[in-house]
Write a structure and sequence with these properties.
With 293 residues, the protein is mainly alpha-helical. The chain is elongated, with a radius of gyration of 23 Å. It has 6 helices and 8 strands. The protein is 49% helix and 8% strand. Helix 1 crosses helix 3. Strands 1-8 form a two-stranded parallel sheet. A two-stranded antiparallel sheet has the order 2-3. A two-stranded antiparallel sheet has the order 4-5. GO terms for molecular function: protein-cysteine S-palmitoyltransferase activity. One of its GO terms (biological process) is protein targeting to membrane. Its main location: membrane.
């Protein structure tokens, strides 16, 4: 992929190593210490956790390798198009957004990534942990990965706590050093990881519910402040309502919502806005042009 660094980086190696270490501790130390791998409960938990770990690794690999969506070089906004209710313009000067580094216009919600050195469609942020931008083409994959990773982390914590508690009496009786120390060490490392992933998941669920990117959230805070200062009311133009917002990210087929595949609506150049569909409460009147950075 032009403009992108190589896939193998220290953060990626660290993520894969962490997944492998937690998986080994949970399946081969915690489950045997708590339930035993020869029991039905032990086999069931090992199988379920293995399936979740494989889904997590698959989603992570796709998030790393999937192109986030680049702006077509020939893109030119049509300001006379009556079907385009909204155009984003620069805050200074009021011109249409143009990337001097890429030498082309930027569609709505697109931004230039200084790491990837190109403009990304509906850019959310650049993530060092996947060495890739999170944009229109891979946002759903990234979201599904975070969901699987957070779920696996919480599941791991439950297995590790159970393994540590049930191995304590065995240690006292046998007097032999057991895997309990390794289980506890893994739990200490896993605790902040699980908390971080859960927080990240909640944050992106909030963004999906409001059809915002991370960049748009921060820009919206400023826009809201400016609107209130002028005595107006700010309304995020891409907020279509919770259900439509979810569908715009996860796709129309609910059965595929948890699959790490991208089923994007649209091409990332034009997006539906709240001015395209009737709402129960009409949004406040807004200008055709939306000032952006």
């Amino acid at each position: 992929m032009a403009g992108r660094p190589g896939y193998v980086t220290l953060p990626i190696i660290s993520v894969l190593a962490a997944i492998g270490y937690v998986y080994y501790t949970a399946v081969f130390l915690a489950i045997p210490a708590w339930l035993g791998l020869a029991t039905a409960a032990g086999v069931a938990n090992a199988a379920a956790y293995t399936a979740l770990a494989l889904a997590c690794v698959a989603a992570y690999a796709l998030a790393v390798t999937r192109d986030p969506g680049r702006v077509p070089p020939a893109f030119v906004p049509d300001v006379e198009d009556a079907e385009t209710p909204l155009h984003e313009i620069k805050r200074k000067g009021g011109d249409l957004r143009y990337c001097q580094k890429c030498s082309h216009y930027k569609p709505p919600r697109a931004h230039h990534c200084r790491v990837c050195k190109r403009c990304i469609l509906k850019m959310d942020h650049h993530c060092i942990w996947i060495n890739n931008c999170v944009g229109h083409e891979n946002y759903k994959i990234f979201l599904v990965f975070v969901l699987y990773a957070a779920t696996a982390s919480i599941y791991s914590m439950a297995l590790i706590i159970g393994g540590a508690v049930h191995s304590a009496p065995k240690d006292e009786q046998s007097g032999i050093d057991s895997p309990r120390k390794s289980i506890i060490i893994c739990g200490v490392i896993l605790c902040p990881m699980a908390l971080s992933l859960a927080t990240l998941l909640v944050w992106h669920v909030y963004l999906v519910f409001h059809n915002k990117t991370t960049i748009e959230y921060h820009e919206g805070v400023r826009a809201m402040w400016l609107a209130e200062k002028a005595g107006g009311l700010y309304h995020h133009p891409y907020d279509l309502g919770v259900y439509h917002n979810i569908v715009s990210v996860l796709g129309p087929n609910m059965l595929c919502w948890l699959c790490p595949v991208s089923r994007n609506i649209g091409n990332g150049v034009r997006f539906r806005t709240s001015y395209d569909i009737p709402l129960s409460t009409p949004p406040p009147k807004a200008e055709k042009h939306l000032a952006m950075s």
